[in-house]
Amino acid sequence: MDRQASPTIGTPGAGARAVLRDLLIVLLALLICQPAISAAATAGPELTFSIGDDVSPEDEVMVREGALLARDYVAATLSPLRSEEMIINVRNSRDTTGGHAAAFSGGDYIVVFTRSAGWRSIAPFDRIHVVVHEYIHSWQASLAGDEGSWAPLWLIEGTAEYLAYDAVAQEGFVREREVTDAHAWSVLDAPEMSELQDLEGRDAFYGEPGPVYSLAYLAVADLVGDGAVSSGVTCW
């Protein structure tokens, strides 16, 4: 994998950036600009919680709050998840798939591992954000299906990060500026990072040792033009 000497958001040319911007616009149009829905459908799917016996009350509260926030945010801001039921499984264990995930989406279900290092090492508001992030992945899958698999993984993950942090920021758990600054400092502090254009596939994205989710978040924030990303961490 090619490495770059300084941590930036990548170096595609003007033409590549225009393609990526168009790609994001199409993706957001598909995911956000949905036809009007009836009031009865606004609430989204029924949430069913499967909580392990040894899950702490604090973790249970955060998962429930995150799932409810995600459902309300997606229904009000985007479009309701196209599923009648969403099952939220919470287990006091490490990632049972052999990976190191704090949680993952399986389409119509989400699994949260409250004994994983990724869960235990983050602040309470970020645990809520993790649940929202995975719910948004379920929402992406319900709308795009297999057709969404062609999109670069940094764009899929970056969009989920961007929307999930927007949801928790709207609830007042964190300020949007603080989120952007934290991601920017994470990227700037990294000794080296792969270029964004090299992070399209699963192996490249998930195998990147640097703060790849921060990079993806900043890339999407820059593409949607919210003005929050400093020129110090962009190199387009």
What are the main properties of this structure?
236 residues; Elastase, domain 1; 4-stranded mixed β-sheet; globular; disordered N terminus
Would you mind describing this structure in some detail?
The protein has 236 residues and is α/β, with parallel strands linked by helices. The protein has two domains: 39-145, Elastase, domain 1 (Roll); 151-228, no CATH class. The chain is 49% helix and 9% strand. It has eight helices and four strands. The protein has helices at residues 14-32, 57-77, 117-120, 124-144, 153-170, 176-189, 202-207, 212-224, and strands spanning 46-51, 85-91, 103-105, 109-113. A four-stranded mixed sheet has the order 1-2-4-3, covered by helices on one side. Helix 2 (57-77) crosses helix 4 (124-144). It is globular, with a radius of gyration of 17 Å. It starts with 13 loop residues before the first helix and ends in a 12-residue tail after the last helix.
Secondary-structure map with pairings?
Layout: H1 14-32, E1 46-51, H2 57-77, E2 85-91, E3 103-105, E4 109-113, H3 117-120, H4 124-144, H5 153-170, H6 176-189, H7 202-207, H8 212-224
Parallel strand pairs: 1-2, 2-4
Antiparallel strand pairs: 3-4
Helix pairs in contact: 2-4, 4-5, 5-8, 6-8
In short:
The protein is α/β, with parallel strands linked by helices. The chain is built from eight helices and four strands.
